[in-house]
Amino acid sequence: MRRQRFRRTAVLAFSTLLALTGCAGAGALGSGGKTLVIAIVSNPQMNDAQALSGQFEQANPGVKLKFVSLPENEARAKITASVATQGGEFDAVMISNYETPQWAANGWLENLQPYLAATPGYDEADFIPSIRDSLSYQGSMYAVPFYGESSFLAYRKDLFDRAGLTMPAHPTWQQIADFAAKLDDKAAGVAGICLRGKPGWGENLAPFDTVANTFGARWFDENWNAQLTSPEFRAAAQFYVDLIRQHGEVGASSAGFSECGTRYGQGQAAMWYDATVMAGTNENPSSSTVAGKSGYVAAPVVQTKASGWLYTWSLAIPKSARDKQDAWKFLDWMTNKEFVRTVAEADGWNAVPPGCRLSTYRIPEYQQAAAAYAQPTLEGIDAARESDVRTRPVPYSGIQFVGIPEFQDLGTRVSQELSAAIAGQISVDEALRQSQQYAQTVGDSYRVA
Asked: 2-148+312-371: which CATH topology?
């Protein structure tokens, strides 16, 4: 019944999206050949890949690529609606380790294992094991990673030196709050820290959930009783909201990954806690004014051994795709070992998709360019184990998300409440009381099933 409710919601959303966008179906005929329609999230790494797509077209005459590139929240909704209804709108889609095992179980995705086996030199064993496993279902990969990430903290070494502060390799959140208070310089336009406040289950809830975990909080107990008004969850939420409101960026309630990246890269924040993939942008002199000035340390903790998340943006082929063979050729091109050199030649080694293939970290040029963050990235991904980031058992999978279909809606609702608290529109207690009601409705459906 839960899956039926989810599918009905997806059908309605998909119908609305089609009416609004009028997109052509996948595998459509272009001028002089086939057109593959690829749905992607608009972020710096995918923008770089999109700019290189002419190389794929040149190597595959008669095949054109059409990218549907949207901000994260919009992309999630559109891709989910399309794939859930098997509408055949896309030949390939960008999804994550949240969707992949669920959608594979639903029969919505093409099993990629036969394609991997038939592609000489692709070498799926080269993927970082935790990333590969997170994109697998019943022993087969249903998506291949474009880049992988955990989370860590970037900090301005020059500002710390000037203030006489020393960042530990494994800081606590209280230490980070103290540093933020000392480095916050509103007159100079420098926030003590940048943290996501933008609504979205993949936006502000990603960093916040890691804070909640290490504070000892959980979304549900073992019997699916919602825990969003528990002392631990409240303490985590109050800490996160207070830290942003007191020492965070201007307009934090509408700031997500991209906005924090811009602010940090323009020297407007002393620290930034977010995805490890941020480092490539931070260290790119063409887009960052602070390149070479940052240090990177493990995700801050309170009660747990670690607190970083595990996430991968990956590419999959919907079961309804009409041109699976050419779609796989595109996936192979974007995720094989050679692609990192293609990116490096065009945009430099700091632009290479990180956290994906072990072989990338053995390339001397990459080791040199990524010296500040390569090892912290690998260590963060390796340490992102659910057993190390929680204090008590939970009935769901996922670190920075709850691995159930309903979380797309539940997480979005809770993220909106959290964002409103960050904006000062409601109190943390008010946000959590409403969020508890949303979560309990979902928990009840699991307990009685």
From this structure: D-Maltodextrin-Binding Protein; domain 2 (3.40.190)
